[in-house]
C-alpha cells in the first residue's frame, strides 16, 4: 500500500548514499559563500535530494544552496541535467525540509531550482 506522500511525488527517488559538498548562496553578497560543507546524500530524484549533515552545519529553511555532487552516476542524471539550474558545475537548489534525527544529525531536503523557474535577484546576479 502506498502512503499519501508517495502519491504526491512526481519523480521516483533512488537510494543515493554518497558524499557531497554544498555552499550556501549568500543573498546579501550575491555570491556563493566560501564555506564548503560536507554531507552524505540519502536519496536523489530529478526534482531534489535528501542529505544528512551534522546539526551544527544545517542550512536554514529556504536557503539557496550550490550542491557539488556526482549526479552523473545516478540513473536520473539526464532528467537532472535537462531540468535543474546548474552554475559552475553545481546544482542550485532550495532547502524545503529539515528533520531532526536522534544521532546529532539532521536530514535536509533540497528541491532543485529548475531552469524554467522564475529566478530571485541573487540567483540572477550569479548567472551574469
Briefly summarize what is shown.
The chain has helices spanning 4-8, 77-83, 121-127; strands at 14-15, 19-26, 31-32, 37-44, 48-54, 64-68, 86-87, 90-100, 105-112. With 128 residues, it is mostly beta strands.
Strand and helix map with partners:
Blueprint: H1 4-8, E1 14-15, E2 19-26, E3 31-32, E4 37-44, E5 48-54, E6 64-68, H2 77-83, E7 86-87, E8 90-100, E9 105-112, H3 121-127
Antiparallel strand pairs: 1-4, 2-3, 2-4, 2-6, 4-5, 5-9, 6-8, 7-8, 8-9
Folded structure, characterized:
By secondary structure, the chain is mainly beta. It has a single domain, classed as predicted glycosyltransferase like domains (Thrombin, subunit H), CATH 2.40.10.220. Helix content is 15%, strand content 41%. It has helices at 4-8, 77-83, 121-127, and strands at residues 14-15, 19-26, 31-32, 37-44, 48-54, 64-68, 86-87, 90-100, 105-112. It has a 6-stranded antiparallel barrel. A hairpin with a 4-residue loop joins strand 8 (90-100) and strand 9. The longest helix has 7 residues, at 77-83. The termini are far apart. 27% of the residues are buried.
- Structural class given helices, strands, pairing? mainly beta
CATH architecture: Beta Barrel
Euclidean distance between termini CA atoms: 48 Å
CATH-assigned homologous superfamily: predicted glycosyltransferase like domains
How much of the sequence lies in strands comes to: 35-45%
Shape: globular
Strand runs, count: 9
What is the CA-atom radius of gyration, in angstroms? 14 Å
User: Which blocks of ≥5 consecutive residues have pLDDT under 50?
Assistant: 1-7
Amino acid at each position: 500500500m502506498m502512503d499519501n506522500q508517495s502519491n504526491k511525488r512526481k519523480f521516483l527517488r533512488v537510494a543515493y548514499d554518497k558524499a557531497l559538498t554544498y555552499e550556501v548562496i549568500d543573498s546579501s553578497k550575491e555570491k556563493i559563500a566560501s564555506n564548503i560543507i560536507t554531507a552524505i546524500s540519502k536519496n536523489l530524484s530529478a526534482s531534489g535530494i535528501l542529505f544528512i549533515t551534522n546539526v551544527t552545519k544545517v542550512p536554514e529553511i529556504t536557503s539557496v544552496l550550490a550542491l557539488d555532487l556526482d549526479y552523473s552516476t545516478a540513473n536520473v542524471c539526464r532528467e537532472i541535467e535537462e531540468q535543474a539550474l546548474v552554475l559552475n558545475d553545481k546544482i542550485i537548489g532550495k532547502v524545503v525540509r529539515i528533520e531532526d534525527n536522534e544521532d546529532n544529525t539532521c536530514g535536509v531536503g533540497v528541491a532543485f531550482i529548475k531552469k524554467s523557474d522564475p529566478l530571485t535577484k541573487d540567483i540572477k546576479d550569479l548567472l551574469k
